[in-house]
Amino acid sequence: MTMSPQEVIHNLGDLPPLPRVATRVIRISAASETSSEELQNLIRTDQALTAQVLKIANSALFGRVREVTTLTQAILTLGFSTARSVVLASSVKNLFTRGPVGLQERILWEHALVTALTGSAFSQAMAFPQTEEVFLAGLVHDIGKSVLALKFPDHYGTLLRRIKEQGGDGLTLELEAFGFDHATVGEALLRSWNIAPGIEAVVRWHHDPLQASPDHRRLVALVALGNQMAIDIQVGFGGPDTLARATRAALDILGLDDATYQEARTSALGALERDKALIADF
Ligand SMILES: [Fe+2]
Ligand SMILES: [Fe+2]
Predict the structure, then answer these.
(1) How far is the CA of 208 from the centre of ligand 2 (A)?
(2) Contacts for 97-106 with beta carbons within 8 Å, 24 or more apart?
(3) Which ligand is nearest to the CA of 203?
(4) What domains appear along the chain, each with residue ranges and CATH number?
(5) Contacts of 36 (CB under 8 A, 6+ apart)
(6) How far is the CA of 125 from the centre of ligand 1 (A)?
């Protein structure tokens, strides 16, 4: 028997709010004509973020000849979608670094970032239209783990170490230890943020995509595959085999055969290194 989100909140007490910048950047849609200007204004409210975006736009990755000195140029150089991802990742990262930042928080953050990047690169390779949603959902899919790490640093820290060293099914171990798992904790948190039902579905069902409502199933499946790719390259906790069922379900939902999956997977992992260098260095 798993607890309802209300019961989880009752057990955990206060939950962290969604960072202000993230709330605002989610509302800026790529479809709007003024979106680039809105994104600029948002970045400008935060000095550290402004410096960071300029630094990334000037990085060797973009092979600039002339120095980028204004936010307008920076967003043009990066492209709207990358600039938005950089801002989202940078503001969401705060959620991973609330407690004492040790090895485990760093692994949770890296796992979130790699899931977001591979999941969205995969969507792009397959020409699925939800790339940006996959990025955000990937960033927060395991946010329940960060809440557990924040609320029960010793107990959950020991459990994560055990999973890293000996493997095992994290969800079951969490359930045994706390009476709820990171998916239900994450669902409770997302409900309190009230951002998008699709993202909430990803957080709740990324280990069991067929349980998601038909409206959100494809999004959940894409993040489940990003999660699998991150674990395959050993960024995160748990062994690849624990995800086998979720991955099979995801491929079914998306109607992909193994050969197509492998091809898009290779291209997503290929794109990873540059993107990771772009965003991880905050
Ligand atoms: Fe998870
Ligand atoms: Fe994960």
Answers:
(1) 12
(2) 98/16, 98/146, 98/150, 99/149, 99/150, 99/153, 100/153, 102/157, 104/149, 104/157, 104/160, 104/161, 105/146, 105/149
(3) 1
(4) 17-97 (no CATH), 100-282 (1.10.3210.10)
(5) 72, 75, 80
(6) 23
Residue 50 CA to ligand 2 centre (angstroms): 30
Whole-angstrom Cα distance, residue 153 to residue 157? Answer: 6
Average pLDDT over residues 2-21: 81
Task: Please tell me the distance from the alpha carbon of residue 89 to that of residue 204, in angstroms, as a whole number.
Answer: 20
- Both structure tokens of 143: 């946010």
DSSP state of 240: G
| Number of Cβ within a 10 Å radius of residue 124 | 18
> Which residue has better confidence, 18 or 102?
18
With CA atoms as reference, report the closest residue to 152 among 92, 99, 94, 204. 99
238 within 8 A of 163, measured Cβ to Cβ: yes
Measure the CA–CA gap between 56 and 88, rounded to whole angstroms: 14
pLDDT digits (tens, 9 = 90+) for 79-93: 888 899 889 988 888
Q: How many residues does the chain have?
A: 282
CB–CB of 15/192 below 8 Å?
Answer: yes
Ligand 1 centre from 207 Cα, in Å? 6
Task: Supply the pLDDT for residue 129.
Answer: 87
Enumerate residues with CB within 5 Å of ligand 2 (an ion): 142, 227
Q: Angle formed by the axes of helices 182-193 and 143-151, to 10°?
A: 100
